[in-house]
Design brief:
alpha+beta, 138 residues, two-stranded antiparallel ribbon, 5 strands, 3-stranded antiparallel beta sheet, 5 helices
């Protein structure tokens, strides 16, 4: 599986100095460990050892987070320097759900390739996503 990383940057002018803060995030590892992605401003600040209770951090929050580089499937979710976080997370869950859904289809329905049954695949993914959303809201 390829690596899905974002290289992030925030440039801010603070107290007469221009600061270039950078951080890298492994999207898949973060989602696997925490089930969500962090606020990118916080991530860049912490990676740059900027106190999140400082005026410098407040200045950072006023600037956009630039996507300096995207690797793997993450690149498919960057448009004009903006990362589609919601779209990436949905895609990540789908990609991670498919092997388990394929096992269920094989065991219970004797279907060895869900790609040959697109409506069933779509129904299983929709059921998975609905279950996931229900679990997240409770």
């Amino acid at each position: 599986m390829s690596s899905n990383h974002l290289n992030l940057g925030i440039q801010v002018s603070y107290q007469g100095q221009v600061h270039d803060f950078k951080a890298t995030i492994d999207l898949d590892a973060r989602l696997a460990a925490h089930g969500a992605l962090p606020d990118f401003h916080n991530l860049v600040a912490r990676a740059s050892q900027v106190d999140t209770y400082s005026y410098l951090f407040e200045a950072m929050q006023m600037e956009p987070v630039a996507i300096l580089d995207a690797q793997g499937r993450a690149a498919d979710f960057v448009t004009d320097g903006t990362f589609d976080m919601v779209g990436y997370i949905e895609d990540w869950h789908t990609r991670n759900a498919l092997p388990g859904l394929q096992r269920l289809a094989t065991q219970l329905l004797e279907i060895d390739d869900l790609e040959q049954h697109p409506k069933l695949k779509q129904a299983l993914l929709a059921a998975y996503q609905q279950g996931f959303q229900t679990a997240q809201s409770s």
